[in-house]
Design a protein that fits this description.
With 850 residues, the chain is mostly beta strands. The chain is built from 6 helices and 56 strands.
Length: 850
Amino acid sequence: MILPPQFFSPGRLAFSVLAAFYPVVSGAERYFNPAFLSADTAGVADLSRFEKGHQSPGVYRVDIWRNNEFIATQDQRFDTSEHAAAQGASGGLSPCFSLSEVKRLGVNVQAFPALATSVQGDCIDLREAIPGAEITFYFSAMRLDINLPQAAMHNRARGDIPPEEWDDGIPAALLNYTFTGSRSSANDSYFLNLQNGLNYGPWRLRNDSAWNSSNGDGNHAHRWKNIASWLQRAIVPLKSELVAGDSNTSNELFDSLGFRGLRLFSADMMYPDSLQGYAPTVRGIARTPAQLTIRQNGFVIYQSYVSAGPFAVTDLNQSSSSGDLDVTVEEKDGSVQEYTVPYATVPLLQREGRIKYDLMAGDYRSGNDQQDSPFFAQGTIIGGLPRGYTVYGGTQIAGRYKAFAAGVGKNLGELGALSFDVTHARSQLTDDSTHQGEALRFMYAKSLSQYDTHIQLLAWHYSTQGFYTLSDVAYRNMEGYEYDENSNGEQVIRDYHNLSNNKKRRLQVNLTHNFADYGSLYISGSQQTYWNHNNANLWFQVGYADAWHGISYSLSWSWSQSPGFSGAEQIAALNVSVPLSAFNPSHNSVYVRFNANRNSNGQNSWQSGIGGTLLEGRNLSYNVNQGSSSTNGYSGSASTHLQAAWGALSMGYNYDKTQHEYNWQLGGGVVAHADGVTFSQPLGDTNVLIKAPGARGVRVENQTGIVTDWRGYAVMPYATVYRYNRIALDTKTMNHNTDVESSVSNVVPTQGALVRANFDTHIGVRALLTVMRGNRPVPFGSLVREITSGVTSMVGEDGQTYLSGLPLRGKLLVQWGEEEPSRCVAPYSLPASSLRQAVTMASARCERKG
């Protein structure tokens, strides 16, 4: 309850404070002397409930902390307690827990007879039920601290959240869309990606599809491709996920493969953060404004436009969870870069006692038209042993292919972690020749925390020429090129295979190092060699970045070469960004940029420009650049990006002496739920629906561009699964007629869920009402409740009562004692203009109740 400045006069406020902190003592009892508040003691309500700092029992919304770990913000029932009465800060209240709430705290209920015999609905006092338990309630902060002996808890890793708190979300239909397009004097190109979904309980039905269209030089091409359709749900007792339909196998023991079938696998995200895995980052350098396309297992999973200079993609869609990434960068001058980013894991280690498994069966599925779809089955298992060891194994079986793998991993402590395994495969290729061979794999990783350095080294050695993968066996021809259409509608080579030149050795290295005050360095590279020729598939990139007095700069260099393609591609780039705040602090959202690059063919280009952010929420960004290249002469570009609650919109314009091009990208989400339809920014795999009825235009903290719509709804995308997600409303952006009981909510979504974060809002007038009873104000300290809305407050000096969220018309129930004569009802009516005022002043007359 917020009280306006005029609620108390300075003199009366001083007496009230003194009365609260220095009550009159009579014998062994302390009480409030009403004479401190008014010479007319009959005009003061019965304040006996506030003696010794007691508060009224009931339900309060509190933050719950268990053993100094935040658990949740929730409504909690409190009763009066003699033990709590001795704690001055508690308001004389003690929490009353139900059996389900005790279980959610992680208590081993069966270890305590008083808890084991409890039934749902009992009021459990943890102090009595668990020896050594300590409960502290800070009423002024609405914080409940619960300290429980470790012996009373289930043996869970720190940060683990019990399944009872996981939320499967609400039934909903979801649509996620991304539409990109470009138009130039030579051709038009469009790309549409749709990700549709239905949620019901723990079930998730998903479809991912894409449409490509190009039109240029008299050629028209349109193609719609289904990337994947699948049904998925969590199997909580097994801490696993079940997938039926199109998906990818894991890449822990074998290469990741697309399939259509069934898969049951251990879900890492159901375990604490310490057991989480690895995700790739796609880096590269664009010489000019370019179109970036990423393929995985033959399907286009990502397409966007990037500016000249280094780029990094860290937000690939969840469906692209495994499989090497084929990257294509189509430059503005017509040149094309192509390279592969290996998607490999760190050493296979598990904690002692944990078993991780992955089982699947289905038809092989890829986006390569030159491959068949044989039926295959795959199973893997990984187990953690004592003393830091991990053992693992698996098999992959098809009609013309059989493979078996086994390996061991070891945590070496200060020396890092490594794993080693061997895979034996028997293959029958498309020419009916049979082969067998072995592949050895070594993986090493080390994080030198004291030096802020992270090293990842992976090596494969195919000891004989007879080793092939299931993907090799699926080819219809021993060798050939895969063709695709570029943005100009032309046939271009996207992939090449030659089964006679099977793999010999593969090496991958990733290193990152932060130099504290001197920037950061990253090095990434891979090499793939073959048995029957000396040409290798090579990719290497190195970069350095630093900042000085707000001025940031980076240097990067990349090198790539692939068999079947002539020559190697090398690019070096320099980027500098200077914020104008370095010269004028008022320009803290504007910066000047410069970048230059040169490739191995002697082509070079440079660009300089200005950019920044606009609008109050800094959700509109812009860039304007001018430059020149050795191939096309002068060039320029302008782009803007808007991140709004309903979606994200990007627009760009590029030109040079030969042509000009417009490009755009529109992305967003649509969620249909029981309360209606809500538009959003591009959805993640797991999302939160914010429900604050009537709270229009309220921002969500720490979320750029997200505000509630005209009904008080919004969607926060990319929630973290099986973890607490804090959703907070920015109360400073609420209008005069909106109040919320608690501006913070915490949810724990399961994989793919749309969970609802509810906020109890009070939409109405903020008013300072003077309530009179006859010719006298109602007693000071009386409790006031609006009968219809339930809004409550307390009477101050001269009958003044501040209430927020009031309806324009209603009745106030005023109570200053426990007996029926100590109550009255005050009808009131406020003008419609009150909704536009910060605080409305009015009066009401209170009549005897009944």
